[in-house]
Amino acid sequence: MFSKKIPHTYVIVFYFILFSAVLTWIIPGGEYVEQIITEDGTESTEIIFRQVEKQPQTWQVFAAIYQGFVRQSGIIVFILMIGGAFWIMNSSKSIDVGIVSFLRVTRKLDKIRLFRFLGVDNMVITLVMILFSIFGAVFGMSEETIAFIIIMVPLAISMGYDSIVGVSMCFVAAGLGFAGAILNPFTIGIAQGLSELPLFSGIEYRMFCWLVINAAGIAFVLRYANRIRKDPASSYVHEEDSYWRKAGNSDIESITYYTPLSAWIIFGFILAGLVVFAFFFPMTRITIGDPEAGTGTAVTMPVIPAAAGLFALSGFFSLRKSVHFFILTLLGFTILFLIIGVMGYGWYIMEIATLFFAMGLFAGIAANNSPNRITRLFLEGVKDILSAALIVGLAGGIICILEQGKVIDTILYGLSKGMSGFGQVATVFTMYFIQTIINIVIPSGSAKAALTMPIMAPFSDLVGLSRQATVMAYQFGDGFTNMITPTSGVLIGVLGVARIPYDKWVKWVIPFMIILIVLGLLLLIPTVTMQLNGF
């Protein structure tokens, strides 16, 4: 008997490299070239396709791995630096402390009549889901949700719900944010970079999509939660949850709250640096969209001086409570300066990676970690995310093979001719379904961006479709099915910790997936039919 196993993502991508090499023997060679057209005395440049001699690839499949790493080296380093930085920050348990403190505050809302009428538990579920969705939308929280399962599932059980509600509060919520990403550097950042679009452009419509997706997702979870509250036996996992009903609370209460001298030193060092920057950059021109093209706005404000003052206040008061809250403050201001840098100073992946790297170092020092421990934590974070970074380089080898074989432009030309009669709406729908199917096989968002965007972006130019719409099709196709694909290590890890059988999870999540996929289709229509800022 042969055991049927889903191949490792690396194996799948290498198969794509081999398949690409085979295509270079079959598909005719071709390339797009610029041609100057003179009409009525006016010269214009037009891109035309012409056939050329193909270059069949053989031993180059092995060189493609190296070439792919060179091609995607900037993105690979970007991913590794962010992964290491977040590992340092997570080691302090600061995010755990922040979530638990957030929940304690929300419980006090029961004293307010309006909130009591709406249902405090409903508000807790909603607020927690919004918080995790923001994490997913801003910095791509995914693997980190596994650690919160042992907090959220017991919380849901104690509130009278089941483990599915607990998983929904963090994992599903982060997935909704991941699908409706606003500033996620691992998906939107990489996809727009590969598509040669301004980083995080089109943010206005993405924020609208994030709101709509979360409204639908939270409504679905609340409807299910209220059903379980009325009839606990109707839960898909009522029997499995007996483990959680018998278990004690999370050991989050055992965390020691303290503020070492090193945290105050880091606070003073950062504040001094911000004061210097505020002196040299008293005013910042914040740009949304492309004002010069009439598709955006620009406002000049004293952003950095205001941020420095805000950091002085929030940093001081957070340090008086605990270093954990100070590290959360560092995370919040890292996100704030990411927005300022991108919208005000044209930052790209090098600057953003540097910003998060600095955050990780400052968090490690503030927690009174030694240089050796910070280094060890950083390396552990790099090791943890290494597979995601390397797969980007491996996927880059596919494009190298197709380009060297002179067939990638032929493929694009064939797609454009084959789909040219679809219309723009049908074309973006087709891209969406292609990305959704690929995500079932390759759940890595960064790998999928590296694999598909270099092909999809130029193709969208040929059919007159906005590259931004193509990125949105990738974004939705990458995000939704992460909550059901069995090849996702995060999903399997979450279900394992929550003790939810995969088959029972599928029964619950399939109707949810249908709603989200249809919603994604509807949200893609305006990217084609309407004039949106950044599109």
Describe this structure in words.
- By secondary structure, the chain is mostly helical.
- It has three domains: 9-59 and 394-497, no CATH class; 73-257 and 376-389, no CATH class; 261-370, no CATH class.
- The chain has helices spanning 9-26, 60-71, 73-90, 94-107, 113-118, 120-139, 145-158, 163-179, 185-194, 203-230, 242-246, 261-280, 303-321, 323-345, 349-366, 371-404, 408-419, 424-441, 445-462, 467-479, 489-498, 502-529, and strands spanning 30-39, 42-51, 284-288, 297-301.
- The termini are far apart.
- The relative contact order is 0.15.
Give a brief outline of the structure.
The chain is mainly alpha-helical. It contains 22 helices and four strands. The strands form two sheets. The protein has a two-stranded antiparallel sheet with strand order 1-2. A two-stranded antiparallel ribbon has the order 3-4.
Protein traits:
single chain; 535 residues; mainly alpha; two-stranded antiparallel ribbon; 22 helices; globular
- Number of discrete helical segments: 22
- The Cα radius of gyration reads 25 Å
Number of strand elements: 4
Helix content: over 70%
Lateral strand order in the biggest sheet:
1-2
The assembly state of the depicted protein chains is single chain
Distance between the termini: 53 Å
Strand content: 5-15%
Low-confidence stretches: none
For the largest beta-sheet, the strand count, sense and barrel status come to: 2 strands, antiparallel
Summing up helix and strand content along with how strands pair, one would put the structural category as mainly alpha
Query: Overall 3D geometry?
Result: globular
For the record, the count of structural domains works out to: 3
Element pattern in H and E: HEEHHHHHHHHHHHEEHHHHHHHHHH
Average pLDDT, to the nearest integer? 81
